User: What shape does this take?
Amino acid sequence: MTRERRFLQRVGGGLCSAVLLVTTTASVLAQEGSKTRKFLKKPLVIEDQGSFFIGGVPKVTTYATPAPPNPNQAPAPNQITIGQMYVQFQVPANKKPNMPPVIMVHGSTHTAACLESTPDGREGWAPYFVRQGISTYIVDQAGRGRSGFDESVIHEAAAMIRNGDITNGTARMPGFGRITDNGAWTAWFGHLSPAGSNILTGTLIRHGDPGDPPTDTSHGKGYYPAYPLSADANIVSRAGAIAEAPAGPSNYYALEYYKQLVPNAEVTLPGSTCATCDPTEISPANTWTPKDLAELVERLGGAVVATHSQSGIMGHHMVRILKERGHLDMLKGLITIEGSCSLPNSGLKAEDFDKIPYMALKGDYTATSEVCDTTVNAIKARRTAGQGTAKADYIKLDELGNPIFNGTTHMMMLGTNNLEVADVILNWAGENILPKARSGKSRTENSRVGRKGR
Assistant: This one.
């Protein structure tokens, strides 16, 4: 019995174990009429699925709930748990021999929902990996989504302000960051025109549409983002919008995708320090999720970790933590998708990846990362010198030469070519994570995409 399986059994009541044929549970009522639409195109056969929490620490606080209005009334102490991470998993009925589980981590302002299915109702990366025979685990970052956050710091700050200690109370109040709807648009899908305009005065222009700035060189000309932006795919009504309506076309301000964006509530958690990192002060986001990921890798007895965007550096901090614990051998591969690859920031060195396959991946609209180039080149230099054996690659989808990758956005797991991108990852993993284990019958295994993706 594998360590992964024993762990799932130990989790007990928190897991839902059965042989399930996932068909009708993945269907939703379509926007038009009574027609149903399935997120899965065909049945997905699994032997186990469920969810559980991992990590976290107890905290005793008198601010678990809002402080009494009377400052002379002492609030009662309570214990809460903070820093834990929500994990959801599926284990396929026909697992690929010797292939370790894959843990997928979302980026800023998102949750694991972006890895389950697309906004227009197509299969997402997580079920697709399961379909390829890989046990797949998706998480909500610590302090985000179903993982929860520490409300006590907000209550404490509010109580201090109410009691007259405005300076210290204000300093303690965390500032929640997030990606706004129009901010996501201008970062990944198009522009706000004219330059200098705002949501009330400008118009959203999609890449490739008339009015797309001719000086923009961040993407190719003559094609649109590979993302479901058409009116019949995932546009929702803005009825009931609060305050003024944007001046531009309302359809681009009403994407179904925007519903996935949530605040970065991990700012309510404490940070940490790392003597070998530069800088040594570690943010809450880079403190708790890396710690929880390391524990998850250990509990599973080994895993591949794939990160996206904000979580890229978290994956590297996870590597450092596994190294500090003497468990670096449990990490079977690290995949960084349009995220930070910095070794100095996370207290790592190129030699730490002598036995860990490493891949960085970018789409069409994101500039090549000098940091990722530096990291991959440093690892490759060791191979040239005869040191280490694991493969290191920086794959740039816009340089593979296949038209399906034109317009691949930062949110590539949700794009119209999301499964083709998944095949690039699967093929690379099958070739390099375990050289003797092929990546299986992915959609483009024998295609030019699959060959170039390796």
